[in-house]
Amino acid sequence: MAIERRFVIFTAARTGSNALVSSLAASSEIHCDYELFHPEQIYCTAGLTQKTIQQRNRDPKAFLDDLILNASKHKPSARVYGFKIFFTHNRKAREYLLNDRSWAKVILQRENVLDQFISHKIAAGSEMWDTTNVAVKSVSRIRFVPAQFDLFVERLERQGSETRAFLQQTQQPFFEIGYSDVEANRYEPLCHYLQVQPTDNMAPRIGKQNKRQTALKLVNPEVARAHLATRGLGHLWVD
User: Fold this and answer.
1) In Å, what is the CA distance from 40 to each residue of 56, 194, 237?
2) pLDDT of residue 139
């Protein structure tokens, strides 16, 4: 079956995007890849492309067209192709995707930016972005630095709002999904948007990391709580 529809997930790190991709890929109708435009690697299904990073960066459209052609051969039942791209990845690719109306747009963001910030810092410190090695994660704590948190939140808000504003200005439909939706396996609305049938097997194949209470992830939890209160973000704290 040929690919009839394609979509891109605009997101950032630590939003549950790996879980979302693995869930969508479980559908017989969807072929979904990970970070195709990661600066150092092409995270796609094995055998779908022989393109180099240089070729990918030079012509993102040709790279994606090649992937879509091979995806239909790799998964004959798939009629929808998608992948995720971070707000900070390849500018040329993002501009092409935003301007090409044939790509359905999905925006994934995490509602609790404190949890996202902590998860990002832990992953960066351990250099483990997609493992479920709880033994490693359970000893990982970070020091909360208010200025770093504020900058992190400002960047996230800007990236999401810029993408959303462009789509609104160009009158393009888009679908928004949150981390909580992924956690709860609430995929039916997204499936309807992608024009596929939701199935019972669309639970994430990837486990959640950093399940501990907020205070147990921080060296200085009292500093974090006080700073959140001054910003009116006390509701983000989870005991």
Assistant:
1) 12, 29, 34
2) 47
| C-alpha dihedral, 130 to 147 to 212 to 239, nearest 10° | -150
Backbone Cα Rg of the chain: 19
Distances from the Cα of 87 to the Cαs of 8, 9, 128, 144, 229, in angstroms? 12, 10, 20, 24, 28
> Residue 81: enclosing H or E segment and its boundaries?
strand 80-86
User: Which pLDDT value is given to residue 186?
Assistant: 93
Question: Per the structure block, which two tokens stand in for 217?
Answer: 């992830």
Percentage of the chain modeled with pLDDT above 70:
90
- For each of the domains in the chain, give its residue range(s) and CATH number, in order of start: 5-236 (3.40.50)
Distances (CA, A) of 159 to 12, 46, 139, 163, 177: 9, 30, 31, 6, 16
The answer to whether the beta carbons of residues 90 and 57 sit under 8 Å apart is yes
- Cβ atoms 67, 3 nearer than 8 A: no
Report the helix count and the strand count for the chain, using DSSP H and E.
10, 5
| Band of pLDDT at residue 134, cut at 50, 70 and 90 | very low
